[in-house]
Every structure is written in structure tokens, then in C-alpha cells.
Amino acid sequence: MNILEVEGITKDYSNHRALEDVSLNIPEQSVFGLLGPNGAGKTTLIRIINQISSMDKGNIYFKGEKLRPQHVDRIGYLPEERGLYRKMKVGEMALYLAQLKGLSRAQSMEQLEYWFNKFNIADWWYRKVEELSKGMQQKIQFIVTIIHEPELLIFDEPFSGFDPINQVMLKEEILKQKDRGAAIIFSTHNMASVEEICDNIALIHNSKVILQGDVEQLKEDYKTNEYDVELGNCPAGMASLNGHDMKIVREEQQDDLVKGRLRVNNEVTTNEVIRRLINCGEIRGFKEVLPSMNDIFIKNVSEIPKA
Amino acid sequence: MTILGPLLFAALMVLPTYLATKSDEKNLVNVVDETGIYSKAIKGNSTVQFRNLNMGIEEARVAFKTDSADALLYIPKTESSQKAKAVLFYQDNQPSLNVQERVRSEMDEILEHVLIRTELGIDPQKLKGLNPDVELTTRNIETGKKSLALLTSGLGLFAGILIYFFIFIFGSQVMRGVLEEKTSRIVEVIVSSVKPFQLMMGKIIGVALVGLTQFLLWVLLTFMIITAVNIMNPGLLDASGDKQKVISDSGALMPDNSESAQQKDTFDAESGFAAIATGLQSINIPLMLLSFLFFFLFGYLLYGALFAAIGSAVDNEADTQQFMLPVTIPLLLSIVMASFIVQSPSGPVAFWFSMIPFTSPVVMMIRIPFGVEVWELVVSMGLLVITFLGAVWLAAKIYKTGILMYGSKVNYKVLWKWIRQ
After folding, report:
1. Taking 80 as the threshold, does the pLDDT of residue B275 lie above it?
2. A242 shares a domain with A165
3. Nearest chain A residue (CA) to B191
4. Mean pLDDT of B394-404
5. Domain co-membership, A34 together with A149
6. pLDDT at position B137 over 80
7. Helix, strand, or coil here: A18?
């Protein structure tokens, strides 16, 4: 079951087309990565899902129902451009934003207490927002995004402004939200984090979805049949392996160890590769090379020049 | 903007002067002169014209009701030992300070001439009693209530300036609030929960309530302070006893020669408060208060919406200037025009400025104490409400796009694009 179905969205601004026929399905209880270079239309799409901007064409369904204003209470949104009222007290501010999402005051208090304790920021309750560092403010923003336990969470570049320790913490919390049952849309440039937490991705480029699918499957699809191998006891090197269906990409000698990368044709199975390696020397290391999301991203985006 | 700015400024400076010199109000004053001294010599000028009526005062009063004349000047016969007196009656609108001054100065002049001409035949004692200073009172012909031109103008000006300040203070508060939400980047979090229109209207209405609370607090505190001073210093403001008498006296239409009138006059001279109390009688205070609340609220709402649009369109306070100028110029114009409006509260300039919604909140408040026809008030209020709705519609369009737009240079062309989106 999909929590969100986006069907053929088109959005025009006066001088350019921000989105063209964009369709996406976001499964329940999964992390969905929304990728794309700057200006591709990610933020526009996110704003349309949040009903901040309108669409010119297309439909969005939230749990099978046409998206309507009442749904905003079931969505949590952490925008890329985020801030707080600088002159307000932290507690007041958090209470206000929680109640804005439909929680009662008592519920808000209860939830905030839990989260403030969990994040070790309970002493900040009476401090002014402007006294906090950017990272501290980000924590508060994260809390008020998830406080109403929304079914759909949208994070736009959530890691910007966090130090490495807090980035790890944030990542864990995002995955906990998924375990709780939420679906998460995750927009970022940080490909490493995409590989770590995303189940599915969509790549938007020049206002169009150019790639979409399961992360593991995409890696499988984009793999180039390459293997990193380490052979011991192989004084002659790997030269003998070169053939019509197998190529040595690189090779280096390290003491008695030969390290190298092989590229094979499609019909050559992994077992066949191992069999040939055994003839050559003693296998110390063997690993299939899968493309990183970064490679897939760059490959797809650079293939299509920016309009 | 480079060209528009100087043009607007020039208009701001030239227009009031031009209008003031091109005095627009024509006043026709009927004269009933029982003394026979003034009617022959009184001549008028371009703004005030006199028409002698050869009839008794009662007859003239009846005729006045269906007449096109603006005022009826009644000069009763007085004993030569008494101070010369005259009453200026009006029906709908109080004659402006301008007209009253004209009447007074002409009468003074004539009286002086008369006195000089007959000087030799008058004994010095009598001459002393004859003061070339005509006592002119202004009264409503229906109610007979005395009006005080200075008080009327003062009250109108005060109300107008108050509205001007409120619009400015709270309007820019709205703008700063919107700008703060935009620059602190909290706006996107909020509009993911509420509609941009709700956020904008919430801001405008919220600030309006703050403004009203502050205003009511001022009124209440002022009242309390005056009461407290009154209690501690009973002599200072104690006019209540005699005020009663003045009010009951003021029912009389004619300036009476009786002793009580004499007493009243001395009293008037002694206590300004009694005079103010009498003067206030001629002004419709409840109407004044209700109109004040109305024009304050809707004037603020109209400008508040425009200020909100400005705040949403720019990235920082410095950039607001180019949009602030055209919005504030009508407001400035209305305050610059204020002194002219007081001089000529029912002329065409005053009329049109009290109809144009961008100037009507201030100008209409200045006019109301002088008396404004009901239809004018209704049309002016209606226009203001309609323009307010239009401004909110326009502002909402700019606001919706503007609050999420960072770093792009916004000019009028861009704004127009947003509106059309």
C-alpha cells in the first residue's frame, strides 16, 4: 500500500517549468529519497505535497484519498529553509508549533517533555531561541516536525547544520520513525546517507523524474560486472586472466599480494570468475563492485545536459 | 521608481498649497440685520458671500430651511451700551473657521468705522462701553446648541492625526512581523500547517487587536487620571454645577439680553471647561466615536494588508523603501491636507479626499465634527470596505508567492507577475 501517490504533476512558473509530468509512489513505512541537482524541482514538489504551492496539472492521493487541507496534520515537514521566532522562549515556541499541528496543549506538553529529555535539552525550555546555536535550533525543529507522530514525514536536507555526532543521532531517529510506521520522504544531496537509510529513490533532473526505484535494485541494474580481487602466491600476476570476456581494469603488486579489478562480460558468472582466479593464485579477497548512489546520480545527471 | 519618486514628492508639496490658494468652498450667508448698520456695508469675498434678507428673523429661519444658503447671520438690535452680538446659524454643516473668521472680521471692521464716524458725538464713557468687538456665536438652527469652531476643528484634527499614527505604527508593525517570519525562515514551517492567507490575516487581525487594546487602555487610563485629578483637586475642573445651567440655557435660540445671559457670559470667560462642554453639545459624540472606531479599523486593515504585502515581497527592511513610498504618500497627503480640510470642511477637496479610501480615514474624521451628510459617510465607509477587500485579495496573492521567495530582486514588474499568477 502506498501512503502517497503522485500522478502526473506539472507546475509552471511564469518563466520556467518547475515540474513536468512527475509521478511517484511512496510505499508505507519506508524511506523514500528524493534526489536531484540544485534547481531540479525537488523543493517545488515537496511544497506541492505540503499544499503550500498549488499544481497546474496532476493529482496527489494520500492513503488513497485525494489530498486535501485536513491532511496537513498527518504530515510532518522539515523544510530546507527553516527557522524559529528568535525572540520567543524555546518552550513557548515548541508548544505553539505543536499545537499548530493539531495537538492539544496537554498532549503537546507531554510529548515535548519526552523529547526534550531524550535530546538532553530540557534546560533550554526557558531560554530564548536566539541564544541557541544553529545545531540546537535544528534539534528543536526536528522535534516539532515529528511531535504529532505524522504518518508521512518530509525532510528537506535534514543533515545540514548538524555536527557528525548529531547527524548519527538524527539518522537513528529518522529510522526509528520508520519503525514506528511512518513513511519518510528524504530530500538530500548527501548520497552516502541515501545509501544508508533509503529504501527507494527518485531522481529528478530538469523538472522530470529520470530514475526511480528500489535502491538495491538500482545498484544491481547499474552494476558494471566488476570485481575487486586480492591474490596471494601469484608471481606472474593476473595477466593470464585477460581474455575476450574478461578484462583487467587495474593491477598493482604489493609485496607478495596482487590487487586488481576485473571487468567481465555479462554471461560470465561470479562462480566462473572465482574458478579462473583459483587457477591463477590463492584468493585472499574477493568482492563484487556495486555502483554507489553517487555514481548512479552523476551518471544519470551528466548524461542529460542541464536544460 | 527613480522618476516616480520625485513626481510623488513634488505632488505632495505642491498639491496642498495649490488647493489652499484655489480656495474651493463657496459659502452663502443670509443676513438678517436688525441694527441696519452692517447690512449696507457687509461685502464678503470670493469664499464668503452675504445676502441681505429684508425680513424678520422668524421668517428668515423658516426660509433658511429650504434655502441654499450655508448659514444665517442674525444681528439683533442691542442697546448701545452693550457689546455687539451676532449669531451665525447653520443647519447641516458647521461653518468652517474660515467663514466664522470672515464674518467676525467684517463685522468688527464695520463697527469700528461706525464708531469712528460717530466718535465726536459720543461721550467717552459710552465709547468705553462700545467695544468694536462683535461677539459672534455659532448655533445649530434646529437644536439651538452653540458650537465652538476651535473645539470642532481641534477634535477633528485630533481624531485624524490619531488615526494617521495608528495606521502608521500598527501598519509597519504588520510589515515587520511578516518580514521577521520571512527572514527567520519560520514561515515555511507555519504555512505547512496553515494557509498563507490565514497566516497573513492572522497577523493583520492580531496586530489590530493589539492596537485596539492599546487604544482602549489609553482612553481608560486618561479617563482615570482625569477623574483622579478631579477628586484630589475639586476646584480645578469643577464645572459640573454650572455646566448644567449652561446646557439648559443653550436651548434658547436667541442671544438674550437678560441678566442670566450676562452671567453666562462671565462664566464662559472664567471657565473654558464650560465652554468646551457647550461646544461638545454641537458635536455628535457617539457618531464621532463609532466613526473613529470604524475608520481606525478599516483604515488600518487597508494599509495593514498593503504593508503585509510589502513585508512578504522583500528580503530585508532596507528593501521595503521602494514599496513603502507609494503606500505612505496618500497617508502623508491626508495629513498634509488636514489644515486645509479644517478651513473648508465641506468643500469639494474635503469631499473627494474623504471619499478616496486611501485618504478617507484621516480626512473623514476631520470632517465629522463639522457635520457630514449621512450618505457621504455611508458611501465613504462602503468604498473603504470594498477597497479593503480588494487590497486583501491583492496582498494575499503577493504574500503567497513572496514569503517563499528569497534572494530574487523584486520590483513592480515582478509583483505584477505574482498577482497574475
Report:
1. no
2. no
3. A52
4. 90
5. yes
6. no
7. strand
CB contact under 8 A, A83 and B193: no
Given a cut of 50, whether residue B371 has pLDDT beyond it is: yes
Q: Are A195 and A247 in the same domain? A: no
Residue A136, domain member (yes or no): yes
Q: For B25, which DSSP code?
A: -
Find the chain A residues whose C-beta atoms sit closer than 8 A to any C-beta of B.
Answer: 13-14, 47, 50-53, 69, 72-73, 75, 77-79, 81-86, 97, 100-101, 141, 144
The amino acid sitting at A54 is: S
β A200-205/A31-35 pair status: parallel
Residues A89 and A38 in one domain: yes
List of chain B residues whose C-beta atoms are within 8 Å of the C-beta of residue A144: 189
B135 and B163 share a domain? no
The answer to whether the Cβ–Cβ distance between B193 and A73 falls below 8 Å is yes
On whether both A129 and A14 belong to a single domain, the answer is yes
* Residue of A11, A70, A82 to mutate, interface with B, max B Cβ within 10 Å: A82
User: Does A28 lie in the same domain as A134?
Assistant: yes
B8 located within any domain: no
Using the beta-carbon criterion (under 8 Å), do B186 and A72 form an inter-chain contact? no
Predicted confidence (pLDDT) at residue B325 exceeds the cutoff of 80:
yes
Task: Check which CATH number belongs to the domain holding B121 and give it.
Answer: 3.40.190.10
Question: What proportion of chain B, given as a percentage, has pLDDT over 90?
Answer: 17
pLDDT at B415 over 90: no
Report the side by side order of strands in the sheet with B27-33: B48-52, B27-33, B71-75, B85-90, B135-140, B146-147
Judge if B60 and B89 occupy the same domain.
yes
Q: Tell me what the mean pLDDT of segment B197-226 comes to.
A: 89
Q: Name the domain boundary from A205, A220, A235.
A: A220
Q: Does one domain contain both A136 and A175?
A: yes
DSSP letters spanning A158-185:
TTTT--HHHHHHHHHHHHHHHHHT-EEE
Residue A306 resides in a domain: no
| CA A46 centroid distance within chain | 14
Q: Is the pLDDT of residue B202 over 50?
A: yes
Whichever domain contains A280, its CATH number is: 3.30.70
Q: Which three cell numbers stand for residue B341?
A: 480640510
Domain boundary among A172, A203, A220: A220
What mean pLDDT is predicted for residues A54-82? 89
Question: Does position A305 have pLDDT exceeding 90, yes or no?
Answer: no
The verdict on residue A302 lying in a domain is no
Contact of B184 with chain A, judged by CB distance below 8 Å, is answered with: yes
Tens-digit pLDDT profile for residues B11-42: 777 776 776 666 556 778 888 887 777 777 77
Residue labelled with grid coordinates 548538524: A162
Distance CA(B341)–CA(B367), nearest Å, equals 7
Which residues span the domain enclosing B106?
A: 16-142
Chain A residues with beta carbon closer than 8 angstroms to that of B193 = 72-73, 100-101
Cβ distance B87 to B139 under 8 Å? yes
Q: Which amino acid is at B113?
A: H
pLDDT of B19 reads 67
Q: Is B175 on the interface with A (CB under 8 A)?
A: no
More confident site: B39 or A126: A126
The one-letter amino acid at B91: Q
Q: Does an H or E element contain A262, and which?
A: strand A257-264
Give the residue-averaged pLDDT of B360-365: 91
What is residue A122's DSSP assignment?
G
Q: Which of B183, B184, B190 sits opposite A100 (nearest CB)?
A: B190
CB contact under 8 A, A141 and B189: yes
Q: Is there a domain that residue B248 lies in?
A: no
Task: Kindly list the residues from chain A whose CB atom is less than 8 angstroms away from the CB atom of residue B191.
Answer: 52
Q: Do A183 and A38 belong to one domain?
A: yes
| Type of residue at A300 | N
